Amino acid sequence: MRKILAISMVFVVILSVGCFQRPPERSYMYITHYPEEIPQQYYLNGQAPREEQEETEQPPESIGEVQVVRSPIQEGERIVALTFDDGPAQHTGRILDLLEEHGGAATFFVLGYRVQSHSATLKRMMEIGSEIAGHSWDHPDFSLLTEEEITRQIKDVSEAIEPFIEEPSRIFRPPYGRTNELVKQVSKELGYAIINWTLDPRDWEHRDADHIYNHIMSNVQSGDIILMHDIYASTLEAAERIIPRLIEEGYRLVTVSELLVHLHGEIEPGVVYGRDYDAV
Fold first, then answer.
1. Where are the domains of the chain?
2. Residues with catalytic annotation?
3. How far is it, in rounded angstroms, from Cα 261 to Cα 173?
4. d(Cα 52, Cα 171) in Å, to the nearest integer?
5. CA angle 187, 190, 193 (to 5 degrees)
6. Tens digit of pLDDT for each residue in 214-237?
7. Which residues touch 67 (CB under 8 Å, ≥6 apart)?
8. Which CATH superfamily is domain 78-278 in?
9. Which of 146, 149, 129 is nearest to 252 (CA)?
């Protein structure tokens, strides 16, 4: 009986310690794999890019010779810049097929942690005349970061894409488009312009190809920077209609850098192009 009582008291003590022990704090600032159980409120607009389980490829030593030569944009030419965030992903290759088939280009704002496992896809982006730029390493809200953290995010993704591009990229897109004075200051010091967008079909929210297609085609104007995400099947389905339709309507699909140089003459570090989602 005494033995049973002793065991019972030990069990009660263990339970008490467990109940009063403070649970460990969880940080959502740097999430690499975006697990399903993380509540959506930790993503500013509901986006939760997910890494695909694919074989890892080794990046090439250098990009080599680019196969497509882009002709200069002519005065009066109707131009738009399609941009795709959060990849590369399983749908990116098909989007590249569409661009190559129709003689268009786009800008892909990639996440650093995805680069190594999609090296062949990034190499092909450059080969068909598209543009690669950074979208952070792992998608935190830059407006919540310190100067050191912002710098690390920009530099880490820039180093990841460096083997695939001919010249260092001087543009990047912060996740969610979120900025503040510190983000702009760091961007300027590092020599990067901030690229947001002028037309947003909210494809991350409306996983519906018809909605994405109708929103873009009803609102597009020459000079637009269009935001989409190549991680969604619905976005690919919409792009299969949007890309040929834009060409049919007389638009030329150019990279962000081509568009901005044509419109402004130069791209200025620290400046936000497109809508400014300043957190302050």
1. 78-278
2. 85, 229
3. 17
4. 26
5. 45
6. 999 999 999 999 999 999 999 999
7. 127, 128, 129
8. Glycoside hydrolase/deacetylase (3.20.20.370)
9. 129
